[in-house]
Amino acid sequence: MTEISKWLAANQALLVSLGIPVFTVFVGFFGSYLVHKSKADEIRLAGRVKLSEYRKENFDELIKQVDRIYALVESICFRNASNEGLSEEDVKKGMSEMVLISWEIASRIRAKVVDPEEFDQAVLGTITHLFGGNSEDSAIGVVQVPEFRALCRAIVRAEWELIESELKRLA
User: CB burial class (10 A; 0-12, 13-18, 19+) of residue 122?
Assistant: First the structure.
């Protein structure tokens, strides 16, 4: 032990001149690692924020489309109930608008609550009910308006639950 102490005492200048650069390199590598790690976390967080913003915008648009289709269906039901009747122009416009809105809704559905074919059949059934009368022999299974509303509400609820689960998983 005394030999080691003597050697250390004799070579203090050498140890300090080697120790400081080694310590500096270690601190530099550690600092670089911390900067890299914080930048990676920042990028990951920015991605999560963008994804949540996109999901929220998509959900807001889904709500708007569902509201539009509700309003359209209700106005047609009201006009049918009031015996005001629909002109051929109104029927064409209403049908095309309903199909367009339903496509927009279908393109925003990510949740597996409803099969796309089932949604298409519900839309076609509602169109048949609203514009084609209540013929029982329709090839398309006629979906009553309340059932269609319930299906749309189920889609919105499932989409919201999907967004919540994604955000909880990302947090």
Answer: buried
Tokens of residue 148, six digits: 């269609």
Evaluated on CA atoms 158, 163, 167, 169, the torsion sign reads positive
- The domain locations on the chain are 47-170
Fold of the CATH domain 47-170? Four Helix Bundle (Hemerythrin (Met), subunit A) (1.20.120)
* Cβ(109)–Cβ(159) below 8 Å: yes
Q: Name the DSSP class of 114.
A: S
d(CA 160, CA 154): 10
Q: Which of 108, 116, 94 lies closest to 64, judged by CA? A: 108
Alpha carbon distance 163, 108 (integer Å): 13
Give, in order, the Cα–Cα distances in Å from 7 to each of 4, 15, 16: 5, 10, 14
**Which segment of 5-9, 88-92, 108-112, 138-142 scores lowest on mean pLDDT?**
138-142
Rounded Cα–Cα distance for residues 151 and 22 (Å)? 68
Are 130 and 73 in contact, with CB atoms under 8 Å apart? yes
Mean pLDDT is highest, among 15-29, 75-89, 137-151, for 15-29
